Amino acid sequence: MILKQAISHARGILNAKNVEDAILEGELLLRHALKISRVQLYLNLDYELNSEEEETFWHLLERRLSGEPIAYITGHREFYGFDFYVDSSVLIPRPESELLVEKALELVRNRTVPVIADVGTGSSAIAVSLALNLPQARIYATDISASALKVALFNCQKHRIANRIYLLQGDMLEPLPEPVDLVVANLPYVKESELPPIYSANFEPLLALNGGSDGLEKIRRLCCQVSNKLNPGGYLLLEIGQGQRRAVTTFLHSLFPSAEIEVTPDLGGIDRVVSLTLPAGILHQVG
Fold it and tell me: Strand order in 230-239's β-sheet?
């Protein structure tokens, strides 16, 4: 079988199983099997695969047909223009989470040495993206999962910024050694009752998905930790799910009545990022 035929067969099989982006995914699987670039693939469409290469390719295709996300199969995911290693111990970074990075850059870019905490860092995609765009920043990245922090460390080393991101294991903000100027968090916000049928739940870690009975359990816990870990005039950025705006903003108002709260929709028009700004000099209001 030549490359051109392999691409065509993969596309047909993936289309039949209603896999989105069947053409792209078939190409990615073939490139991963052969360890070649996209340019090499299309310059050698008449290349004849040997039996070992064919077997490897069909095995990868079977994994995809079983529902395993292609990011776990290839070990790669692009986020904010950067390439990240991912495996099943971390959530696959979503495009909508790039809005968190954009808002964070907007808020702290003009600070001399911003101190940032990325809570529930997972693959460290957010922390690394911020570090690469804010060379003056000091960044703490926390996660309760030791296996997730191994992936995070790999990505920090891959992008050569391991000396500027401090990886800390523990519950949300508890491991922080000092207050910070910005807390950014993409915590689990899926309702427990909605977990089985969505987000490739058989492959992605449930710890990174399960937001409790109403999806907001982890977010509320973080908000209650913020008062002692956020500097006056600091910011909190939270990613939320569809329909959660009112509950989250109401809860934040109850904790920080004088804070400024803003909600930003994603490209699909879904309220996605909640921004809280503490007034300069505000007293801590919750324990």
Answer: 165-169, 138-143, 115-119, 180-185, 230-239, 271-277, 260-265
Query: b or e along 192-221 (b: 16 or more beta carbons within 10 Å of the residue's beta carbon)?
Result: beebeeebebebbbebbbbbbeebbbbbbe
Tell me: the pLDDT tens digits for 63-73? 999 889 999 99
CATH of domain 76-277: 3.40.50.150
d(CA 275, CA 234): 11
Say whether pLDDT at 198 is over 60.
no
Give the separation between CA 74 and CA 60, rounded to whole angstroms. Answer: 9
First-residue to last-residue Cα distance in the chain? 66
- To the question of pTM greater than 0.85 for the whole model, the response is yes
Return d(Cα 204, Cα 228) in angstroms, integer.
32
